[in-house]
Amino acid sequence: MVDANISFGQAEYLEQVLREGYSHPAVKGIIMFVGPANAGFNSTILADEDFQSTPAGDVVDKLIDEWKFQTKEIKADGKGSVEIPLFHGDYNITVKDPVSSSLTAFSYKMTKDVTKDTVHLRINA
What we know:
Radius of gyration: 20 Å
Helix content: 25-40%
Low-confidence stretches: 1-6
Strand content: 5-15%
Shape: elongated
Structural class: alpha+beta
Number of helices: 2
Oligomer: single chain
Distance between the termini: 60 Å
Number of strands: 2
């Protein structure tokens, strides 16, 4: 059986490593090889011998769910500002004016050449 205390600490570290790697512009994907616990890989196995998810498996499942394509609705603050962490990729953004309910759609490409921590987009109505 996998020691959950050891695995939980290793799972937190695994999440940090995967997030750091995935956010780098040169990374196109991540492949993981994790062997069985009896081969000495007990701190990063994704499922135990009963096929129950381990803490490391929970981290990987959470990140896969977080990183897959999805639609999100985000509301701006009182000044019309929104802060969203983005990975490199293509985004289709639709902005809804809360007063007139008009929609403005545009595309944004987050490339590896973007070196600023913050990107400001101005929409002129």
